[in-house]
Design brief:
globular; 51% helix
Length: 87
């Protein structure tokens, strides 16, 4: 399946999928507080309204590898993240 990428429909990266998994597990706010990150900003990144900053990516290295912020998430990765949320 080929996706068309434009300003209104950016590609979903693996980092965004990981943030959404944290939100679904209700761990997102705790992680933001632990790493002194703005929850509102991180939430906007998870929804695709903002781009992640270097500070955010650097502070979340213990959860999200750097390459995940740039690699597009495929169906297999998204389904694996959904399975981890449900368990």
């Amino acid at each position: 399946m080929e996706t068309v990428e434009d300003d209104n429909n950016p590609a979903i990266t693996k980092g965004i999928v990981m943030l959404n998994a944290l939100m679904a597990k209700r761990q997102f706010k705790k992680v933001c507080r632990l790493k002194n990150l703005s929850y509102k900003f991180c939430h906007a990144v998870a929804e695709g309204r903002r781009s992640p900053t270097w500070k955010m990516m650097n502070n979340l290295l213990f959860l999200i590898p750097p390459n995940f912020w740039f690699e597009e998430a495929d169906e297999e990765f998204i389904s694996a993240a959904n399975e981890s949320v449900q368990s």
